Amino acid sequence: MDIDALRSFIAFVDTGSFTRAAKQTFRTQSAISMQMKRLEEDTGHSLFVKEGRNLALTEQGQQLVSYARRLVSLHDEALGHFSAHLQHPPLTIGCPDDYAESILPSMVDFIRRELPQQSLRIICDCSTQLRLMLDQGKIDIAILTRSPDAEEGYLLKHDIGVWVKGDDVTYAEIENQTPLSLLLYEPDCKFHSTAIDGLEKQGREYRLVCSSSSATAIKSLLRRGQGISAMAVSSVSYGLDIIENSNLPALPSVDIVLAVAPVPHPVFGSHLAAKLSQRFFQEKP
Question: Among 119, 203, 268, 276, which one is most buried in terms of CB atoms within 10 A?
Fold first, then answer.
């Protein structure tokens, strides 16, 4: 089976979209369709089934996912081995600002151990923008937040959303706030929309003091007692406390994953991404 076709297949599985798969692999949708048809001819099975307006994988398509990932991983491992001594452009890593303190350092430690001569470039932005950059080939790998039922990327950590305050702010002060002052990430953040929706369903008055893509800005305001926020446990750092046993709305669980561009960097493909995923869990207490 053609490696490029398998990459396109994996891109569809990870993104759920032939449009994004085409963008990520720098092909037209018709070219992607031809690749998928060839894969169906190679396997002798239909890989896709229509569900409403969307395409889903057949049972054989789901079985192919595992083989495709292993084949592409082995291919990338071989290329990485034989090109490790060559000079390559910087490995560009995308990271949401809120994971720059918690997830990113462990990832950089791993990459520097595996690729000690490889230079790195780090771009911080929200998951939505990082996905666009992956699609456009502007970054090589990205730390992303996904829904737990999605297939995207290589799992780094299961996480949950929590309400957070500055450690000098008492819970009584929060309970007595009317309206409740909120400091949230941008509207495309899952915690932003869930927090707002939950408060509205409770009929609780709130005021969105600010929204920002900068974790530094939000955390600085939290430490000054300017409001409360909703974020993943991984994002909670010094000077902040998780609000326990409150009647604030429940927040969702999320997965933190590493996504790899379908056209990978010469020395960092799916093989190292899978190895990083395994190592990341091993190193957690």
Answer: 268
d(CA 281, CA 255): 13
If you count them, how many residues does the chain have? 285
Query: What 3-state DSSP class applies to 23?
Result: helix
CA dist., res. 184 & res. 235, Å (int): 13
Backbone CA torsion sign across 54, 55, 56, 59: positive
Q: What is the DSSP string of 166-234?
A: ETTS-HHHHHT-SSEEEEEE-TTSHHHHHHHHHHHHHT--EEEEEEES-HHHHHHHHHTTS-BEEEEGG
How far is Cα of residue 65 from the mean position of the Cα atoms in its chain? 19
CA 139/CA 264 separation, integer angstroms: 9
Joined together, the tokens standing for residue 12 give 């569809």
β-partners of residue 121 are: 92
Instruction: Give me the mean pLDDT over the 222-251 stretch.
Output: 92
CB 267 within 8 A of CB 115: yes
Tokens 């561009």 map to which residue? 261
Convert the pLDDT of each residue in 41-85 to its tens digit: 899 999 998 887 778 889 999 889 888 888 888 888 787 776 766
pTM, two decimals, is: 0.70
Q: Are strands 120-124 and 141-146 parallel, antiparallel or unpaired?
A: unpaired
State the average pLDDT for the chain: 87
Quickly list H helices, the chain. 3-15, 18-25, 29-43, 59-83, 104-114, 127-135, 171-175, 190-202, 215-223, 270-282
Query: What is the distance of C-alpha 233 from the center of its chain?
Result: 15
Rounded to whole angstroms, the Cα distance separating 139 from 226 reads 35
